[in-house]
Amino acid sequence: MRRPLYDNFNPAVKAVTIIICCIMMAIGGTWQINCAVIVSCLLCLTLLSRCSIKVMIGLYMPLLFLGGLIFISNLASADLDAASKTAYEIASFDTALLLGTRILSYASMGILFGLTTKNKIFVMSTMHQFHLKPKFAYGILAALHLVPTLSREWDEVNLAYAVRGKRTGVIPFGPLFNTLVNGIRWSENVAMAMESKGFDGDGPRTYSIETPVRTSDIVLAVASLVLMTAFIIIFK
Amino acid sequence: MKWKLKDILMIAICGVLFAFVFMAANYIGVALTAALTPFGYAPLGYQLIYGLWFMAATFAAYIIQKKGVGTVAEMLAASIEMMMGGMFGPMTLVNGFIQGFGAELGFIATGYKKFNSATMILSSVTCALVSYVSEYFFYGYSAYSFQMNVIMIICRVISSIIFTAFVAKIIADGLAKAGVLRGYALGMKAAGIDEE
């Protein structure tokens, strides 16, 4: 049975824990540590969260491809003859593995955070734990809530171009510019609407969602850091 | 500086649009990495388009023209990228801060007095260099040869100048010309309105 331990982990504490683990991993610097981190994240995702396995596989596929490419590229260069080594000089299987798995291990921690954290709870948590000013927090949330509107606008602009027989090109600068224009206009309207309804981004306020730091959060954070330290001691 | 809600929302909404660009750029980065793999230059795949990730900082700083805008804008864009599914999770915030601070250095060097092409280029170069130093540590670039590191830095700086300086400035100037930035320093200058 899957226990949603990571889904209930306080987002701010979780973010700080993951950042510290990433820095420790960078100091560690071996492919064994990277692999241990990847396996740990996969175990946490499958056993300690409610995330969809299908979504998880979908996220890992392009990363495996990218990690594989970096590994192959570094490995291939190790076999180059001396004359062609001037630009690129990596001479060991270990180094190729280190560089290939490094990106995967960082992304694994990112995926662990992303799949077990709700955006709204994270933003609330940054206000409560990091004392982020409400105008920044609600500004981010307002922008995120405008994503469907921006997507719809993007589709409409592209449709308008198509109806008029205008080509948008590989990089659609025209539609991008139009969407940006409307996005900036909306930002002014949304700011006006929020302030006209009494939104004060600086003063004290009450919150509908509280995100307290519980003992379980501290235990989970300490356990994660102890595990990371153990990996470094064992595999360094 | 005192931040207005409309400034934050403008940066955040542009951050959403940039996040879409970043996600598309990720696929381009993978494709470039794949194309360069047979030649042993896979690490250059992302360096060639890295400037795209720094655009939020110079774009916002060029429009709002106040202290600290570059750093805060890049962090806002990074937090939105993270929440929209950026693959590096909370590390995106750390990178956002470093990149934003790197871009800010260019504006600090001019004392926040000049907001022109030269400042944008300077800012894009400082951003590329500062971000490279941090990634040298985080992503283990020390494992690459000296020559490869030099090539990577050159590619990153060129990409940064193209996207972070020129493309960001062209877009911002276009928006000012379109009249949507009248509430910001750049738009006021374009319309000949005195900020004071």
Describe this structure in a few short sentences.
The complex is a heterodimer of chains A (236) and B (196). Chain A is 72% helix and 0% strand.
Total number of beta strands of chain B: 0
Provide the succession of SSEs of chain B.
HHHHHHHH
- Write the CATH fold name of chain B: Arp2/3 complex 21 kDa subunit ARPC3
Report mean pLDDT of chain B, rounded to a whole number: 89
Count, helices of chain B: 8
Helical residue percent band of chain B: over 70%
Percent range for β-strand residues of chain B: under 5%
Domain count of chain A: the total is: 2
Runs of chain A in which pLDDT lies below 50 for 5 or more consecutive residues are 80-90
In the CATH hierarchy, the architecture of chain B is Orthogonal Bundle
| Silhouette of chain B | globular
The radius of gyration over CA of chain A amounts to 23 Å
Helix-residue proportion of chain A: over 70%
Q: List the secondary-structure elements of chain A in sequence, H or E.
A: HHHHHHHHH
The biggest beta sheet of chain A reads: none
Largest binding interface between chains: A-B, 73 and 60 residues
How many structural domains of chain B? 1
- How many helices of chain A? The count is 9
Describe this structure in words.
The complex is a heterodimer of chains A (236) and B (196). Chain A has 236 residues and is an all-alpha fold. Chain A is 72% helix and 0% strand. Chain B is an all-alpha fold and 196 residues long. Chain B has a single domain, classed as Arp2/3 complex 21 kDa subunit ARPC3 (Orthogonal Bundle), CATH 1.10.1760. In chain B, 74% of the residues lie in helices and 0% in strands. In chain B, helix 3 (51-64) crosses helix 4 (69-83) and helix 3 (51-64) runs parallel beside helix 7. At the A-B interface, helix 1, helix 3, helix 4, helix 5 and helix 6 of A face helix 1, helix 4, helix 5 and helix 7 of B.
